[in-house]
Amino acid sequence: MLYAVELFLDEDADRRVRQIWAALDERGVTSLGSTPSTRYHPHVTLSVYERGDAAEVAGALRPVLATTAGLPLPLASLGFFLTEEAPAFLGVVPTSGFLGLHRAVHHAIEPLVEGIWPYYTPDGLVPHCTLAVGVADTSAVAQTVARFPLPVRATVRSAQLVELPGGQRSTPLIMG
Known about the structure:
Elements: E1 2-9, H1 11-26, E2 43-49, H2 54-65, E3 72-80, E4 88-92, H3 96-109, E5 128-132, H4 138-145, E6 152-164, E7 170-174
């Protein structure tokens, strides 16, 4: 079972990302929001790991994330991971507050979990909000996203421990 530690966006930023998702869907690029059999919300992932007791991990994360609501998560650029999954994303400006939070999350969970994905380690993170996966036409994504003003001035609304794939089950860590 895979789990992700996710930061959910404030109401306005959530709405703006969903508008981009809808525009991508209209353009024929399947957005994260319309991926079949999923319940994704616009989010920024702090960690993905393969094994660990969800209740124990959630207990360790709650004090670390307790003051996270309102933390700025400016979404300022469009990017693509050149991997088999081919995701398109909005890049998060990595502020010192965000990077400190990311390190604190990993410090809290490392003794409790196994199989942390290398893309989410403190020395490997590219902070992002996923727009679509399986992107074959990057120019269609770029043309679509260009219709929306950046940056999206997002802040953290809440944090959850989410079961992957698809975000079907989640454990609230903080509520904003």
